[in-house]
């Protein structure tokens, strides 16, 4: 490939492409936690290195309390704000609770709200963050204190940006909080593809759940996905798709055991994103989890999702 071809291939801002990102995402103190907050910074830096400009990144504002109350109970929010979580709540959270953690979560919610707005304008956007799907309306769990996915969905519905939303949750862990929040809500379709024999032990009921077992691998995973997408989009006809592109179904993940390869994850991204874009349904991409033994693998998986989304955006929009 010529140098010119090389530069063109990797140039990010050949066309309008907007990301939501904040340096505050990786500055949160998590005390050597398995959650790799540095992935956000590493992805941001790699995108700049590949030719993205600072103008391609939008900074989020923290979500307001009013926004949080669209999903979370006043009592829970009060406990969060006053630092009065019970010991069992902190254990379920599996994160060191602090006021700084709440600021982090509130900013992430604002980021997802912003990213949804950009997706509606541009057809596709990427939040270099988001996907905290284990937060329930009245408690947090599994590294998630505020459910940015659910809050952004409700907020944008409420302001009339769209009516029907679909959540395609491909994180290896079930989107239990999101499923609980939208149970019985016919305007939101929750789809979760996850591993059965890991956290959360008690699965909630999504609109559609697809469960896998340890070592199921690429073929089973992708064949199953293809049997639902694009059919699911054509039937429900969402106005927007929230894609939780979790990196943790990966074969070298510390928390998951699904053994999906890097190539398999790329194919997954292609199926989810292409299915929506070819039907002109806007897609907002949220990263959700990713705990590879080598954080650079997690970074590569998320960057691959971005690359795939750019390629498909060019093709369909
Ligand atoms: Zn996960």
Low-confidence stretches: 1-15
What are the bound molecules?
zinc ion
Our estimate of the beta-strand percent is: 5-15%
Indicate the percent of residues in helices: 40-55%
Main sheet overview: 8 strands, parallel
Total of DSSP H or I helical runs spanning 4+ residues: 13
Strand order of the largest sheet: 2-1-3-8-7-4-5-6
Gross morphology is globular
| CATH fold label | Arginase, Chain A
Mean of residue pLDDT?
Answer: 93
Structural class: alpha/beta
Q: Could you give the order of the helices and strands? A: HEHHEHHHHEHEHEEHHEHEH
CATH superfamily: Histone deacetylase domain
The end-to-end distance, rounded to whole angstroms, is 27 Å
Query: C-alpha Rg, in Å?
Result: 18 Å
Tell me the count of domains: 1
Question: If classified by CATH, what would the architecture be?
Answer: 3-Layer(aba) Sandwich
Overall CATH class: Alpha Beta
Q: Find the count of extended strands (DSSP E, 2+ residues).
A: 8
Q: How does this structure look, described?
A:
This protein has helices at residues 3-10, 24-27, 38-49, 65-68, 74-81, 87-93, 99-122, 148-158, 176-182, 217-228, 231-236, 262-277, 295-316, and strands at 19-20, 57-58, 124-127, 165-169, 188-195, 208-212, 240-244, 283-286. The protein has one domain (17-316): Histone deacetylase domain (Arginase, Chain A, 3-Layer(aba) Sandwich), CATH 3.40.800. The chain contains 13 helices and eight strands. Strand 7 (240-244), helix 12 (262-277) and strand 8 (283-286) form a beta-alpha-beta unit. It is globular. The protein has an eight-stranded parallel beta sheet with strand order 2-1-3-8-7-4-5-6, with helices on both faces. 44% of the residues lie in helices and 11% in strands. With 317 residues, the chain is α/β, with parallel strands linked by helices. The chain starts with a helix and ends with a helix. Zinc ion (ZN) is lined by residues 171-173, 246, 248, 288-289.
């Amino acid at each position: 490939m010529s140098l010119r071809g090389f530069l063109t291939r990797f140039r990010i801002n050949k066309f309008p492409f907007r990301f939501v990102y904040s340096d505050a995402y990786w500055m949160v103190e998590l005390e050597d936690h398995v959650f790799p907050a540095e992935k956000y910074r590493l992805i941001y830096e790699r995108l700049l290195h590949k030719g993205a400009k600072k103008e391609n990144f939008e900074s989020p504002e923290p979500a307001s309390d009013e926004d949080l109350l669209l999903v979370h109970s006043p009592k829970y929010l009060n406990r969060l704000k006053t630092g009065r979580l019970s010991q069992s709540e902190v254990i379920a959270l599996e994160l060191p609770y602090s006021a700084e953690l709440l600021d982090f979560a509130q900013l992430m919610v604002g980021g997802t709200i912003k990213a949804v707005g950009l997706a509606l304008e541009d057809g596709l956007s990427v939040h270099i963050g988001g996907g905290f799907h284990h937060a329930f309306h009245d408690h947090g769990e599994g590294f998630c204190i505020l459910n940015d996915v659910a809050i952004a969905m409700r907020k944008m519905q409420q302001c009339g940006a769209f009516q029907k939303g679909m959540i395609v949750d491909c994180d290896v862990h079930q989107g239990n909080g999101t499923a609980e929040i939208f149970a019985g809500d016919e305007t939101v379709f929750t789809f979760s593809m996850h591993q059965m024999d890991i956290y959360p032990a008690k699965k909630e009921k999504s609109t559609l759940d697809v469960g896998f077992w340890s070592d199921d691998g690429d073929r089973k995973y992708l064949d199953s996905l293809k049997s639902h997408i694009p059919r699911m989009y054509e039937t429900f006809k969402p106005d927007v798709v929230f894609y939780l592109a979790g990196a943790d179904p990966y074969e070298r993940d510390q928390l998951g055991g699904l053994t999906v390869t890097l190539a398999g994850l790329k194919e997954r991204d292609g199926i989810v994103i292409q299915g929506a874009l070819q039907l002109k349904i806007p897609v907002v991409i949220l990263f959700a989890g990713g705990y590879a033994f080598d954080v650079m693998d997690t970074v590569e998986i998320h960057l691959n999702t971005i690359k795939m989304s750019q390629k498909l955006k060019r093709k369909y929009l």
